[in-house]
C-alpha cells in the first residue's frame, strides 16, 4: 500500500477511544486554552518501515497518549490514563486499507509532575504504544 498509514491508524485509534468519559475530552491537538480537565491528547509522532526485502510494506507507528489534570490532582490524570490504557492495551483495531499485525503493543507509562500546559500548571501522564500494520 502506497502512502502513510498515519491517517487510517489515527482514525482507528479515535474510533476505539472516542466514547471514554473524560471531562476535557480526547484531542488530536492540544486545545489553545483548555479549561476543562482532565483531558487526553493522542499523538502519533512517528511511522517507520519494518519491511526490509520484497514488495510489501509493514509500517510500525508510535502512539503516545498524554493525560493532563490540574496541578494538585495527580490522581485525576492517573485515572484518565487508566481509562485509555484499559481501552488500548492489547486492542484489536479495524484500520481501513491495512491489517493489524497482532494487537496494540503497550510499552510504558511515565508521570511528569507540575509541567506547564498553555500557562497552566498541570500533571502529565504519558503512555507509549506501538501499532504494527500491513498493507491489505
User: In terms of per-residue confidence, which ranges show pLDDT below 50 for 5 or more consecutive residues?
Assistant: none
Beta-strand residue percentage: 35-45%
Mean pLDDT: 92
How would you spell out the order of helices and strands? HEEEHEEE
Helix content: 10-25%
What is the C-level CATH assignment? Alpha Beta
Q: Provide the CATH architecture.
A: 2-Layer Sandwich
Q: What's the number of extended β-strand segments?
A: 6
Distance, first to last CA: 7 Å
Counted up, domains total 1
CATH topological fold name: STM4215-like
Tell me what you see in this structure.
20% of the residues lie in helices and 42% in strands. It is an alpha+beta fold and 136 residues long. It has one domain: STM4215-like (2-Layer Sandwich), CATH 3.30.2000. Strands 1, 2, 3, 4, 5 and 6 form a six-stranded mixed beta sheet that branches. The mean pLDDT is 92.
List keywords for this structure.
136 residues, alpha+beta, STM4215-like, 2 helices, 6 strands
